[in-house]
Amino acid sequence: MTEERYAVDDINFKELAELNPEDVCKQALCRYDEIKKCYTLIVWGDRYEVYPYDSRVEAVGFSSKKLHDYFYIFLVNYLIQAKDANLCNEWISEKDIAGGSTFFRGPHEIPTRFIASCYSKNIEKFKNVCEELGGTPINMADAAYSFAITPRILVAVLFWDCDDDFPAEAKILFDRSISYLALDIIFALAVAICSRLGKKG
Questions:
Q1: Does one domain contain both 107 and 156?
Q2: What are phi and psi of 113, to 5 degrees?
Q3: Residue 162 and residue 121 in contact, taking contact as beta carbons nearer than 8 Å
Q4: Does the N terminus or the C terminus of the chain have fewer Cβ atoms within 10 A?
Q5: pLDDT band, residue 3 (cuts 50/70/90)
Q6: Residue 108 lies in a domain
Q7: Closest CA to 197 of 168, 176, 175
Q8: Is residue 63 domain-shared with residue 123, that is, in the same domain?
Q9: Are residues 100 and 193 in the same domain?
Q10: Domain, as residue range, for 141
């Protein structure tokens, strides 16, 4: 196991510890171990254990490079904020989420430029990396893949390769059901996605 602490605030772990595990498991579609006092969940294809009383997260059964700090912020806050809601199967941008048009600007602009710059003139590598990370191809942009981040969080990464007139471009879309998450947690997830795909490039 790989223990991860990073940027997750202890107050988030405390908030999680105060919740009813049965409710959390129903909302987030995860499991709770009464003996170990931890939640187990699959996030982006990998298994994690979250120990709210010890303020720590452990990656289970795999060896991974350190992911972006924001990934762990998303992971813990997902357990706190998740709702018992089905996927809508409708893609929206961050600007379509209530408050998103003003929030996702300036310092909160989603850094999809990292994805675009990594795969400019190399669309096949973008496809290979997305498939390596468990993506499912969808018919959008020049190439696009959907990712089940958790059973309740579905995102799509779109990529347009450069041509003589325009530079490469990338975009992240979200299933509309994500709207129950706080905007800063959606931002944390988006940054983590850009970072992980960018590092693979």
A1: yes
A2: -60, -30
A3: yes
A4: N
A5: very low
A6: yes
A7: 168
A8: no
A9: yes
A10: 91-200
